[in-house]
Fold 2-oxoglutarate ferredoxin oxidoreductase, beta subunit.
Amino acid sequence: MVSGLIEKYFRYNRLPHIWCPGCGHGIILRSIVKAIDELGYNKDEICVVSGIGCSSRAPGYLDFNTLHTTHGRALAFATGIKMANPNLKVIVITGDGDCAAIGGNHLIHAARRNIDITTIVFNNNIYGMTGGQYSPTTPKGEKGTTAPYGNIDKNFDLCELAKAAGATYVGRATAYHAKLITELVKSGIQNKGFSFIETVSVCPTYYGRKNKKGDAVNMMKFLKDNAINIKAAKSSDAERLNGKFLIGEFYKSIEPEYTDEYNKIINIFQKER
Ligand code: SF4
Ligand code: MG
């Protein structure tokens, strides 16, 4: 942790965190806090909301306005918060199971509305906290507690899903690419609309162990060796791209934001009364 960030943004009495040794989540959280610090917001301007899962422990460590909600419902709570106080910078921290399975419906509708919420998914390809069940991002053929012979479901591409549903800012980074996480989160927060940032994490305890991915160092090396930035990918041949996955800023557009549109309706209503 960069000197000063812990003192400034973390709840001392909640530390040390209880993520497993080698878990990628701490790197991602540090990168998010760095983005907020670099944007220079007052702590009271930020509200961080989570659901349930290993990733969703994050707000409990942070000294912003924070809310730890129920499984899959972080975006529903965050929508209420944003509607009640559009001036808040609302950030949702969620996991792949929380966001794309249990909360999948909330995700597509928050994106469709283009409500000004920055959603950051800690994608560890499995349900970590609840014991290693396969999730909508567990790759086909990989194992989980509930898929001991291999998952037969096709996995979601979360960024494609969010973009198709209407998100106006979409990007992906990994726990290895900490600086990129900070850049994407800064841009996501500054986007006036629904921003979706997937951060590929590492879970050596469940996903790694069940799928013989080696230790945390091996898993981080996999991210380093197999992620390719979309800018570099544009000038790469098919052979170099084979088996790789893309990171970087994928999509941005300017479209009407939900709370702005809602407030216009409220103004019309009040004038006509
Ligand atoms: Fe991290 Fe996995 Fe441990 Fe959860 S179970 S804290 S995701 S390593
Ligand atoms: Mg998960």
Observations:
- The first helix runs from residue 5 to 9.
